[in-house]
Amino acid sequence: MTTRRTFLVLAGAGLALSGCREPAAKASAVPDVLIAETGRGLVRLSPGGAQKYGPAAVLSSDGTRLSVVRENVLSEIVIGSGEVTRTTALAAGWLPRVVSPDGRAHALAHTGALVIPRRRSRTALLTVIDGRTREYDLPGVVEPDAFTADRTGLFVLDWLPATAPDHYRVRLLDLNSGRVQPLQTRAKVPVPGGAEEQMRGEGRQAVLSENGQLLLTLYTHQPGHQHTRDLLSGRPGNAHAFVHVLHLSEHWAYCLDLPHPFGEGPPAGHALAADATGLAVVDATSGQLAYANLETLQIDRTAPARLPSGATAALLLTGDRRTLAGANDQVSVLDRDSGAVRGSWPVPAPLSGLGLSGDGARVYAGTPGAVTWLDAATGEATGRVEVAGLTALRHVA
């Protein structure tokens, strides 16, 4: 889904077996800084309490910055401290859509994020970079997606047809010239006309690689999809699920296909995570994990995940080579190298996100209306904080 973004800080943790359901955790102040998504917008949770930002707020791809508009003022906020680092006055009607990881660049539109945008003949976008504003008037239905690493370009989703949008291509808006152009192939040559991939928004989730260079977007339910390499070679395409790899510095894109049966089950049953050593994708419907190498952009192997079938999935990689795969009210603890199951941890309600504290001591589980944290060594629930209307745990600082 175009509205879905899940960014987690990953760190090492010692994880052990836990086989029985623990008593409910007591309500207490959250020991770390978290970002939760609610029906009324983003909320920052910290030991000092909760800060509500409302619906006109967006989180950066690495989870370290917020872009917030209130009363026609754009604020740049550091997640860790809650500090407002810059404000910029705006004309009425602009909504934040993208903020760069360093907080210096913001993209805004007159409409909020939707799974499929409404038809329109032209799109107005506004960028605010180091406090300087510039407006763009673009033909068709264009949605902002991510800034280039040097903040000279904005990756956008160009939806087609503009009169009844149902699919899109990822393109690059040159912020100097104002022109929208195709991406490059992995060989760093422009994609020729007619060979741009066209994708549908269903099941769209994304994470940023640990080095900040790759935006990794999971697509499911894409039957008949033809990658650029298929279009160039004339081969038929039929990928049901893949990870779209977008290089934010070199401006190329590549699709990493996921093996069958990934993509066959509900989009919510899929989740992805990345760290310095690679990428993982889980499919709760089939109970499978796929591990990929981000250097070679190839699937290394698959392994069973043993999760409740069809439920909303959550995934977390730890620094000590553990994989935490969650669905429904269960988190499976797996050895990342051998695939061996090390434990099964209960959570008090269906999961809506997992996160790991920076020191690796606590695993956070988002559930409807609350966040529970578990001891990372035992899986024991040690605390809980209520968050009215919580729909997803988005980030742990």
Automatic annotation (TrEMBL):
SUPFAM superfamilies, A to Z: DPP6 N-terminal domain-like, YVTN repeat-like/Quinoprotein amine dehydrogenase
Query: What PROSITE patterns does its record include?
Result: PROKAR_LIPOPROTEIN (PS51257), TAT (PS51318)
Q: Which InterPro entries match?
A: Quino_amine_DH_bsu (IPR011044), TAT_signal (IPR006311), WD40/YVTN_repeat-like_dom_sf (IPR015943)
Protein name (record): Lipoprotein
Q: Could you tell me which species this protein originates from? A: Actinoplanes palleronii
